[in-house]
Amino acid sequence: MADEFDVDGIDADAGETGLDMSAEPMPQVSILTQYVKDLSFENPNAPGSLQSTEQPRIEINVAVNAKRGGDNVYEVELKINARAMAGDSLAFSIDLLYAGLFGLANVPEEALEPFLIIEAPRIIFPFARRIIADSVRDGGFPPLMLDPIDFASLYMAQQQSGAGNQVGNA
Question: Higher pLDDT residue, 114 or 20?
């Protein structure tokens, strides 16, 4: 009777709870590590750009890429580019490629891509956001505080346009 035990009248194999403990194992996700792959900050018109009183126009682009890194290991890259223009002059430019390694086990195939393109970037985004803010501040400008990104909406829009992300093999 090694497989069954009774705790306060609840049979752990299924019994009264209706739980089937012999079903598929639960999905498991772990963040193995996070890291900066590439970071570039440019302030080409300093010190003049630092003395400007004009409010800069800021353009931000975000991209997500995911690829298999080994057995049950996936690398998710979050690429953020920001450009600040004061008039016709570049105030600053920052490019960050931030990545995370995720260990995934027992994740159904149909849930793999949505996790890697929606949930994984949502997990690592706050860390990338801080790096952007600190780098811009260290470059002499007020910190650039990026608004939260709705990765689910971006994914859905990309799926509807037919340009869905593919999870590649390394």
Answer: 114
Q: Which residue has the tokens 């570049």?
A: 90
pTM as predicted: 0.78
* Core vs surface per residue 11-47: b (16+ CB within 10 A) or e: eeeeeeeeeeeeeeeeeeeeeeebeeeeeebebeeee
Domain that holds residue 101: 25-160
Q: DSSP state, 16?
A: G
| Peptide bond between residue 47 and the one before it cis (omega within 30 degrees of 0) | yes
> Residue 41 sits in a domain of what CATH number?
3.10.420.10
Select the more confidently predicted residue: 143 or 20: 143
Cβ-in-10-Å burial (0-12, 13-18, 19+) of 160 comes to exposed
Q: Which of 165, 167, 122 is nearest to 31 (CA)?
A: 122
Is the CB of residue 73 less than 8 Å from the CB of residue 102?
yes
Give the residue among 152, 140, 154, 123 at the shortest CA–CA distance from 60. Answer: 154
Q: Is residue 166 part of a domain?
A: no
Counted residue by residue, the chain has a size of: 170
